[in-house]
């Protein structure tokens, strides 16, 4: 007899997300499982450096502090917890949780997932012929020229399902895919088998929607001005049924809202295209449909699946060098000339070994400023080197501070902001693939027993679909130059060194215009920064969305590039600010809706 839907509530989308989220989830609507995601690629890079210096602390202590007051309540209510806060040391976090529960005399069983850490196996794997070709360049790992300090394979959800089936109350993971936290819980709850691909694909889609916390409830959403309670938006809940369909909702008492558009925003976030690869199943997002079912309830159905890929992603990290950043302020007029003089003065007598010195102007001074700050722009100065010593000799903060009386007029620091004086490590990122059969996926139970998770028996290679560029449309009878954001929403993010941008319209009648207007050529015109990049364009008609992958915009990854918007999170809003000819009828409709 089929069980009812499992209610999975998210309480974290990244390391540093709202500390009180576990408190709120416990006090909110009844749920069966709490899931917390902490391991963005940039976070993994930071944890890799920390783990290298102190292997005992390779997990996320923040989670331990969050859950500490609630262990008795979790046990009393039978709420399960699944998290990837184990980072590089899931066994260590599991042990810390057991000790904490023992001290509080709370009967909780804690299991952990192992096998994602393939760093110790790299020499053997490379000897066995695994080249770890870079996903974007195709170059083998041997060509990197850096020594990896971490290498983690992305695991699926079956280890989580096995641990829960054995009675675990808390499952601590390292690098599983973000969506696997929810999908593994759903597979356990419903008793799915490895071949239940359509059901698992639906759960992966639901897991992807809720994995980033408040983003599915109005956070980081282009239409935030229409979302109530945005001072403290809540966290999402996925009700996942036995057939894999789901309803996305939230705790009723919390702020924010769940709408078709907030869910769409998360679906197009940090994907490579309509084909969404997971170690357990390949999910085809181009058949997915969203339906508004009532206040804060959005149905997700129509997901189709194919067998999982034979490989899984491996994220490798290595220390690239060091960097240091300071920010100064320049006042109009003659802003460009002033920045150039600053550049020349700081560049003079640059120590050997400093390989990069970048000046980035942030903002534009008003032509006729109404206040002093309308006449002011920030200038970010960043320097990098392979070794720390040249940056120490450069003394960037000291050098900038020495220019007050010998440089440009109207030049200053924020006196209350401490200048950066110590270079920070820069961690480079190398994404690659490894056959799933080469990864030892294990669930380690609280009594020491180990459940080995076999690689998938059936696999298939899947590629992103190729969508032709739209043919030129006849000009609309009446258009007006206006921001793209007048009629469309967007969400952008990072996938290694690539940035993805999803743009969609809330109304079906605007979809034919959007897909015609937003060609690759038009994107290059709107965003000069990407004009020389390789751009991949896809369409998702059921979501009324056009999706782009901007290859190389983020260098080799957010943890190593010197861009101010390091992980491309603001590229979507930048695109929405750009003007293009928009049919009057679409603008009139949006203006009418805004007025009412």
Task: Tell me the structural class.
Answer: alpha+beta
What is the domain total for the residues?
Answer: 3
Q: List segments where confidence is low: pLDDT < 50 over at least 5 consecutive residues.
A: none
What is the percentage of strand-forming residues?
A: 25-35%
Total count of strands:
26
Written description of the protein model:
By secondary structure, the chain is α+β, with helices and mostly antiparallel strands. It has 3 domains: 6-116 and 154-308, no CATH class; 318-428, Alpha-Beta Plaits (2-Layer Sandwich), CATH 3.30.70; 479-594, no CATH class. It has 17 helices and 26 strands. The protein has an 11-stranded mixed sheet, with helices on both faces. Strands 5, 14, 15, 16, 17 and 18 form a 6-stranded antiparallel sheet that branches. A hairpin with a 2-residue loop joins strand 11 (289-294) and strand 12. The longest helix has 14 residues, at 90-103. The radius of gyration is 25 Å and the shape is globular. The two termini are 48 Å apart. Residues 457-480 are annotated as: Disordered. This is DUF1446 domain-containing protein. Residues 483-577 form the AtuA-like ferredoxin-fold domain. It comes from Saccharomonospora amisosensis. InterPro entries: AtuA-like_ferredoxin_dom, AtuA_N.
